[in-house]
Write a structure and sequence with these properties.
The protein has 121 residues and is of the alpha+beta class. Helix content is 55%, strand content 20%. The chain has four helices and three strands; from the N terminus they run αββααβα. A three-stranded mixed beta sheet has the order 1-2-3.
């Protein structure tokens, strides 16, 4: 299949999952953002990258809620007119924003320490 079609389907999956997440009634679902989708070349697997604000326990419960909702998402995707064979979904927690924030905090701390050392001289 064409690369352009793969890009369109990937974008469609991301948009539709993002729209459907707020409709889930699962109490385990945390504050989630769908960041990206990577679709395999054969359209059989979509890796859905997401982030969750909250504790490690909230992240775990959200992962479990997403696993429970796979059937719901796939059924919805199959109902779309241009996606009759919905791919299997794999939800992957992406901590890159949190890791970047940690690095930024360390850099800010180092900058403050450096400023206090230069003032003390």
């Amino acid at each position: 299949m064409s690369r352009r079609r793969q890009e369109r389907v990937t974008e469609l999956i991301q948009q539709e999952i993002s729209k459907q997440v707020p409709l889930l009634k699962d109490p385990g679902l945390g504050f989630i953002t769908i960041l990206a989708v990577r679709l395999s070349a054969d359209f059989n697997l979509a890796k859905v990258y997401y982030s969750v604000l909250g504790s490690e326990d909230e992240r775990r419960r959200t992962q479990e809620a997403l696993e429970r909702a796979k059937f719901f998402f796939r059924r919805h995707l199959r109902s779309l007119e241009n996606l009759k064979n919905a791919p299997d979904l794999m939800f992957i927690l992406d901590n890159s924003a949190e890791e970047a924030e940690k690095v930024l905090n360390v850099l800010q701390k180092l900058e403050k320490e450096r400023e206090s050392e230069t003032k003390g001289d």
